[in-house]
Amino acid sequence: MGDLSLGWLAAGFVGAALVVAWAGVRLTAEADALAERTRLGGAVFGAAFLGATTSLPGIVTSVGAAAMGYPKLAVSNAVGGIAAQTVFIAFADMFYRRANLEHAAASAPNLVNGALVSTMLGWVLLSGQLPQWTLLSVHPASLVLVLGYVGGLYMAKDAQTHPMWAPEEMPKERRRVAPESEEEQGLGRVWLKFATYGLIVGGAGYVVGQLSTSLVEQTGISETIVGTYLSAITTSLPELVTSIAAVRRGALALAVGDILGGNVFDVLFVAFSDVAYRSGSIYEHLGGDVRLVLSLSIVLTGVALLGLLRRERSGIANIGFEGVLVIVLYAGTVVALAMG
């Protein structure tokens, strides 16, 4: 794609983004149905299935960059995507007019996922300061990330089935009613449709990532800025589309679970990239600019958690304090990174 003109690259970007939007809306409909029919709930299904599915473009981009010898691009794509997707919660909030989204979507599994994102990101930051020992060019910290993800999924599922506490329910909260046509479909057919739309979203998102990387190569923008903003945001488009679609369907826990659960999965990009990077530990390449983005992602996740705990009913343009704050923090870091 590097041989294409800027005009064709831009046209390809728009076309792939439209495919992401089309398939993302349909993916959300199937995910909403599966969350109900499997009795996993929106928060757990969003984290374990929808979040992982919409993260496919980012996985391919980070692993591919690491395999080609661009470790900073691989890591910044992963953590930059987490920052961008946390901001997407505020955008999705604009489409729910009845109350602040964090007020309506508060649940124990979503809180577990948010805490897990912060913990795993903190571990990546800490691992960059540890001795860079490797086994077959893989740092032991990557194994800890994988184990933490598996353990976190179990904790989120346990919080759904055996909650030790529960948030106070919104008065007159809209409950989802499955359409008759949906009930008539076999569960296997719904899973097949979910997988099909997931592959379309993943493929289109991968093309978006490749196109954006080619655009940056032609303009000479730095590796970290490419990963943090261009490739991270573009490969995160599925999360934006599916979260807004979920909100419009009234599947609020699914919307927030998709983003927070997807963010948990996105931290695993670092572990996958460490395996793909054959020149040693990927953690030794966490320079100051990458650590800045890591710190931003941790702070934004903490703000989102505070929003889920405080559960403010309304705010500026129907966005709570946490939504306004994450937008301001993200925009400020964009400026700081560009100036640095």
Give me a quick take on this structure.
This protein has 340 residues and is an all-alpha fold.
Describe this structure in words.
The model is unreliable at 171-181 (pLDDT under 50). The chain has a single domain (6-169, 185-339), classed as NCX, central ion-binding region (A middle domain of Talin 1, Up-down Bundle), CATH 1.20.1420.30. It is globular, with a radius of gyration of 19 Å. Helices cover 76% and strands 0% of the residues. The chain has helices spanning 6-37, 42-54, 56-67, 71-93, 101-104, 108-127, 140-161, 180-184, 187-219, 223-235, 237-249, 252-276, 288-310, 321-339. The two termini are 29 Å apart. Helix 2 (42-54) runs antiparallel to helix 7, helix 4 runs antiparallel to helix 12 and helix 6 packs parallel to helix 12. With 340 residues, the protein is mainly alpha-helical. It is built from 14 helices and no strands.
